[in-house]
Amino acid sequence: MTVTGMDEVRDALKSIAQSQTQLLSAFESVSQRVSELEKGRGATGPSRPTNGTSRVDSDDVLDPSPTPLHAGYTTDPSLVSAEAGTQQASKSAAAIGKLEFPSRVILTTYPKQIGINPFPMEWGHADPVKRGPVVVSRNTSTIRRRNAIGAHSGSYSIYYALAVASRELPLDHKPDFTNTEPAVNIGPFPQWGDKKKIVAMDPWGHQVPWLFKDVMENENVDLRPTIAITKAHMKLPELEESVRSGRLVPDGKVCINSQGELAVTKVAVEPVWYLPGVAERFGIDEGTLRRSLFEFTGGMYPELITRADIKVFLPPIGGLTVYIFGDPAKMSDSSKRLALRIHDECNGSDVFGSDICTCRPYLIFGIEEAVKEAQNGGCGVVIYFRKEGRALGEVTKYLVYNARKRGEDRASDYFKRTENIAGVKDMRFQALMPDILHWLGITKIDRMLSMSNMKHDAIVGQGIPIHERVELPEDLIPADSRVEIDAKITAGYFTTGHRMTDDELKAVQGRIWEE
Ligand SMILES: [Zn+2]
């Protein structure tokens, strides 16, 4: 075949594909209209109850030929499609059963499949429009345009599913973003346009509804922010005591009054992973990362395997919150001092005051030092990561506690106990943590309120120097948590004090259960 002949064939195929896409769009809009009309008819019907609890009898106005999917699942493989496009169109997106899910279940999609048309995405591009929005919704109006795998809101995506399933939330709910704009302006910084520096969050996540307003309105694409920025006051009993003892002096701005009330800017961030970048941080190949994520989420995200063209994943995990004390603009100003604490969640200590570890004391110390730095003309930042129990979770953590307390709870055995149960000492893997520092425009840290080498090395490894490391003062360490802190110091955690010998470490013992 001649070159010209090939071109003709290619053009013909292209035009067929285009017509297919148009046909699919037309079909979807017709079925959407049918569904709307049915809903309208039902809502105005004389005997139709309007409260949500009575809506279970709405079958009469919906699909007259319900399938086993009516109940939300099926044992008949012929009803489940592993492909989108033509098969999706063949049965239409018309409402069926009790919920208005499309009748065909789309288990996965494939690149270049007819009807699949992902939004262009150029991760790390400095121009947010060229970078492109993160499109992850499986809404019928958006599913064909997805350029990301997973779902919004991290682990809370499951509650979203429950809300829809229990009819608390309509399938087609569209958030109203009026007045939700960030309370303070952060960035943009050159780091936002560097795909090596930010791989675990969307640097434009706080501006989504405004940056991509046209796409959302004109193309009916469902987009949601992954970052939100607000302002608040906060009160901690320890800080009231700090003011009373004279360690903290109210200035009316950062520390507002004698109760130790603080003014704070808060940033909530949900994880958005650029898979090639995440793989690179861990020194592994992208394929291995995708396969492992697929397997250990119970096969929840088959597109990790079938859509190599999609590089972004919104994982079902907790995110982080930044607490900024003082003027946020000073974070990125290298002429101003910065104090920083990176804190990983420990619910038992942080919230409930459990004394087996140093978490809350260190958190409070971090906040107090951050406030002081802000009062001295610099800025203080505390970043709280949802990585409960070294990212092993509370169940594993309590099993470890039991094994410790049923043994002799010696500092020399501290890490061994965790390793016996979890297989590793720690699953927090700080490799992705520094992204938030790049996002905040931080280029150096004057005072790092942490003794962790993993955190230190991850930050310095990302090219952000740490000028001073500050350990938790002795008088803030609860007696029962000596086991933890001494074990950590001996394992290499930062200290300016004494690093114990093996024999000394064996002598450090925690409280044993009274049995
Ligand atoms: Zn703790």
UniProtKB/TrEMBL annotation:
It comes from the Eukaryota. This is GTP cyclohydrolase. The lineage of its organism: Eukaryota, Fungi, Dikarya, Ascomycota, Pezizomycotina. GO terms for molecular function: GTP binding; GTP cyclohydrolase II activity. NCBIfam families: PRK07198.1. The keyword Nucleus does not apply. Keywords: GTP-binding, Hydrolase, Nucleotide-binding. It holds the Pfam family GTP_cyclohydro2. Residues 104-295 form the GTP cyclohydrolase N-terminal domain. Residues 30-76 are annotated as: Disordered. GO terms for biological process: riboflavin biosynthetic process. It comes from Rhypophila decipiens. Belongs to the GTP cyclohydrolase II family. The keyword Nucleotide-binding applies. Residues 333-470 form the GTP cyclohydrolase II domain.
